[in-house]
Each structure stands twice: as structure tokens, then as C-alpha cells.
Amino acid sequence: MKHYKNLIPLLLIVLMGAGIYNTYTMAAQKQVQIQKNLTLARENRDKGIIQDALTYYEVVMKLEKNFSVELEVGEMLHNAELFNEAVKWGEHLTDKFPKEKEGYSFLLTQYIADQDYEACFKLNDKAVNNKCVNKEFQKLMAKIEYQFEYGYDQFEDVTTFSMGMMAAMAEDKWKLLNEKGSPLASGFQAAGLYNGEVFPVRLKNEWCYVTSDGKKKIDVSGLKKCQELGVLREGIFKAKCNGSYGYYNTELKQIADGFDEASSMNEGFGAVSSKDQWKILDSQGKQVGKTYQKVVINVRDAACQNDRIWVSEDGESYYMVDSEGKAVKGVSVEDSKGFTMPDSYAAVKKDGKWGFMDVNGKMVIEPQFEDARSFCNGYAAVAKDGEWGFINAKGTIVIEPQFAETKDFSNGNVYVKRGEIWVLLKLYRDNY
Q1: Of 287, 285, 291, which is closest to residue 248 (Cα–Cα)?
Q2: Which is it for strands 148-150 and 413-418: parallel, antiparallel or unpaired?
Q3: Is the dihedral of CA 315, 320, 325, 326 positive or negative?
């Protein structure tokens, strides 16, 4: 018995050796099979015999899990112009090999060729989450970063976006829309800018404030012969009654009246004119600073934004003052569109061209455009050769000039005029 015990370890060694030998033999045979079928697959691929190539590739893939081989199959499908199949294969690759960066680049190439930009941005999210963004992927995304599509609805006139809402007119009736272009209420004779709670609208020849779904919120019928209603800000609104502009609170108490023109109140200040002379009023109706020949009112009907007001004493040069009427030193331009939003740049004209300036008077984008709108939500509209496009905050053109007119962006959406109609332009990067 003692001798048998001594033989057990030796037997185990022999058995283990035999097992290792068999494993290596099977692995070697498997590799022979893989190489044989892979060679046949590539030969048929090079001859353009795709179906036979796929048959041999299938054998290889059953024998081992190999990303490089499966990527090779995808590239074969793409080169054979089997684009639908290539897309499906790319989706298979990113699901089966979620950590392989080249799979994402391959699939992104297929989506771009298919012009499926929505899928491109969804894939970008997936690649970022899986930490699979390489330089090739970044270059591909950069090429489509500002691809866009148009909405279906067409309008004769539109307001600019304000607090994510706007109004549009078709067949002489105005609708209230959200920033995706979806109608919320309709049937108005006129409509103004949204303040986050209400729109000023005219319905049945009477002005009032309504919520975004069209329900009356503030009744201003106590104002006699009201001809125009401005945006409500900080509890104060402008109204044109009996031919002159004034400011009122929501209880219809008059703050100031008797002006030929007026901006809406913003940041507690408004601009008014009488007999071609402009002045700045505070929320109590008291004048601040000097009297000017002109004051710039921006596209949102505000004179004061970012504690800056653009003024001109001679009608030929403009400079900035703060809400106390103090001038920002060293600023002199031929014209300005004013600031539109916090932390944005104002479009200014100098030496016959338009550029962009910050609140401290620094020219951040040199004058070079025929015309421009101030920055809003990261973009500014600029004109070149009579057509409008958009730049980013670095001054780079991201949407080539091609439109008759434009409004301002809101979360990747903007209304542009194509010929005689206004349509919604939607950036895929913000709408997927």
C-alpha cells in the first residue's frame, strides 16, 4: 500500500501533463482553423464575394471572440456599400465590445454617412460614458457639431425667444409657442415678449396678459384706449394709451406718462423720449443721468442690461453708462445693438464694420461683419454678403450665412427667415 501511495503523485503529474498536452493540441488545432477560415474570408472579401467571406468570418467568430476580426467585417460591409448592414454591425460592435474605442468611431462614420445626426449625438453620450472617445471620434464629431434641421411650421412673422417662449404669426393670427416650436395657445391679434409668467396679447381688440396656455392672468382693461402693451418685468410694464407711452404697475397705478417712445423696464430702468430727446427713468419714474439724443433699445425691448445702457449725445457716436449714469471710460463706437443677456457680448459698429464688446469696453471680437446681432445663449447672428449666419463666442462661423434674417438662439433653437417665411432651425446637438 505504501508503494501505491508513492505512485499517486506521479500519476497526477502524468495526467496533468497529458491534459496540458491535449489542451495545447486542441488550441493549436483551433488556431489552424481560425487562420484557415480567416485567410479564405479575406480572399473572398478582396474578390468582392461578400456572402462567402461572411460565411468564413462566421466560422472564425464562433471559434474566438476577437474585436479586430469583427471590426474587419464591419469595414468590409462599409466598403461594399452595404450601408444599412454596416450600421447594424456597428451597433452590434459597440454593444458586444463596449470598451473598444475603434468600434464607436466605426459606428459614428456609418451614422454620418447615413446623415442620422440624432443617432450621432446619442452615440457620443454612450462613448463619453464608457470613456471611449479617441481623437478620431472627436474629429468626426467636430465635423457635425452644428448640423441642424428645420421645423415643419412656417410663419409670416415671429418674435425673438424670451424666457424659452416666443410668438409667431400666420394668416394674421398669432400663436404662443415653446422653444421646440410647439403651439401652446393661438388666435391672438397681436402678441409680445414672454417674461417667464405671461405674454402681452391683443384679443378681440383688447390688450391683456395671458399665461403661456392662453388664460387671462392680468386684466388691463382699466387703461383707456390702450394701443400697445409691453413686456411685464419687475411688476412694471409700459403701455401706449391715447397715443403716448407710460409706465404702470400691475394695479394700473401710473408711474410716468406722456412719452413719444419708450422701452420696457429692465433691471429697474427704462428709456423714454419726448421731442427727440431721450432720458433714463428708474422704477419710480425719476430721471437718472443726462438727457441724450439717442438711447439703444435691444431686441428684447430693454435699454438697461448687465447694468449697462448705450447712449449717444450727438447721434453719431455711442458709449456705455451704468445705471447711475456714469460713463465707462474709453468706449466710443459708431453704433451698438446693446447687451441681450447676462455675461454676453454686445454687437458694436466701428470703422464701418460690426464686432463685439464686453461690459468693460473690451473688443472681444474685432469688427469684421456687415451687420450683427448681440450674443444670446452662446451664439450671435452675423451678416456677410447680404445673408445671415451664426458665430460662437470665439468668433468662429458655425452656421454659414444663408438666411434673409434671423432671431436669437434659445437652447439650440432659433427662428430664421428663408425667403419670405420664418422657420425653426434646430441644432441636433441640443435636440436629440
Answers
A1: 285
A2: unpaired
A3: negative
pTM for the full predicted model: 0.88
pLDDT in tens, the chain (432 residues): 444 444 444 433 443 344 445 556 677 888 999 999 999 999 999 999 999 999 999 999 999 999 999 999 999 999 999 999 999 999 999 999 999 999 999 999 999 999 999 999 999 999 999 999 999 999 999 999 999 999 999 999 999 999 999 999 999 999 999 999 999 999 999 999 999 999 999 999 999 999 999 999 999 999 989 999 999 999 999 999 999 999 999 999 999 999 999 999 999 999 999 999 999 999 999 999 999 999 999 999 999 999 999 999 999 999 999 999 999 998 999 999 999 999 899 999 999 999 999 999 999 999 999 999 999 999 999 999 999 999 999 999 999 999 999 999 999 999 999 999 999 999 999 999
CA dist., res. 65 & res. 346, Å (int) = 58
Q: Which domains does the chain have, with CATH numbers?
A: 31-149 (1.25.40.10)
